[in-house]
Amino acid sequence: MNDDPGSTARAIEFWFDFGSNYSYLSMMRIEALAAARNVKIVWRPFLLGPVFRQLGFENSPFVLQKEKGAYVWKDMERQCGKYGIALTRPSTFPRAALLAMRVAVLGANEPWIGDWCRKIMQLNFVDDREIGSIDVVRDALDSLGLPAQNLIDAAQSDANKLSLREQTEQAVNKGIFGAPTFFVGGEMFWGNDRLEDALDYCDAIAARQ
Amino acid sequence: MNDDPGSTARAIEFWFDFGSNYSYLSMMRIEALAAARNVKIVWRPFLLGPVFRQLGFENSPFVLQKEKGAYVWKDMERQCGKYGIALTRPSTFPRAALLAMRVAVLGANEPWIGDWCRKIMQLNFVDDREIGSIDVVRDALDSLGLPAQNLIDAAQSDANKLSLREQTEQAVNKGIFGAPTFFVGGEMFWGNDRLEDALDYCDAIAARQ
């Protein structure tokens, strides 16, 4: 039983990776935008690396194509300026953040998921910290007042590791080829530039019902 | 001598290829947007195929990556819907349009350049015609009341063929890796999604002067 017949439509799936710079832009914007429209965020962390490898790329296109890579950081500066979001170009890119991603899978339905995701993104794209390190993850959990060791242990359980692997396979099966990607009512939207369109589509679905 | 000291800044270079679907979106929008801001369009047709090959790709990424290709046409439908632009998915993609591109280089500073570019884009992305064919080019020139045979002869002169080749080399040298690409005051903006930002940048430069 579902008390709110519109609840399924008024949700946006947010597929992201902490290493992805355009996921960072969406991460810092999605909660306010979704709340303003009464849209629920369904958090879908997945590993972009295996998705790229599945598509035949050994690394991010922003690394493999130097022209595109050079452009992307200019674009990021301008986009961050437009949105009023801080940015430091990470000294390592893209940063793997396996443990932090596992914590995100573990906490996907927890009230702290948004805080966690923004915290890790800020450590990567503002503070230029090694978000792949267990010490950085522990400090980040501590800073949010979360039980760091318990969550790290749970994140590293076989079941939770499998959850992230399965979610990554699901990304491939859904035709995801980059991040961020949004799904609304089965419709796919790729890239931070489509976040507003994806949210508009929630309203379009609701209007049809 | 330049009578208008702001004239250099209030210009946008529009780098495009008639085969490029996102160039189509910009083509149908740029003239009205630029006119509303008193910005001059500098028309820069170039061949995307050689640029892709220079970057190591044998074809458009929308053809080489089937997931991205499938997505792009959904995105095109939605974007065209949003902008109120007609769209028929071309039965051949990407379409080479060498002669039509040569006419565009020839006419880049002529009063009919905008009409020509929109006409060819419409033939490709609405009427699904073979814009690579000399007959289609001739009919298109006729339909605009232009001297078809004269322009076709001039477009196929060695000097004009060289102009298009040189402009394509210039695209590579400027770090262009896709289309459409815009330049404003030396700053590069990639993709139809950045057209408004590029035009905003004209105002930002003017405000600084």
Automatic annotation (TrEMBL), chains A, B:
Task: Kindly indicate whether the keyword Cell wall biogenesis/degradation belongs to this entry.
Answer: no
Single GO MF descriptor:
glutathione transferase activity
Q: What Gene3D superfamilies does the entry give?
A: Glutaredoxin
What is the main EC category here? isomerase
Q: Which InterPro entries match?
A: DSBA-like_thioredoxin_dom, GST_Kappa/NadH, HCCAis_GSTk, NahD-like, Thioredoxin-like_sf
Reactions listed under catalytic activity: 2-hydroxychromene-2-carboxylate = (3E)-4-(2-hydroxyphenyl)-2-oxobut-3-enoate
Q: What is this protein called in UniProt?
A: 2-hydroxychromene-2-carboxylate isomerase
Which organism is this entry from? Paraburkholderia monticola
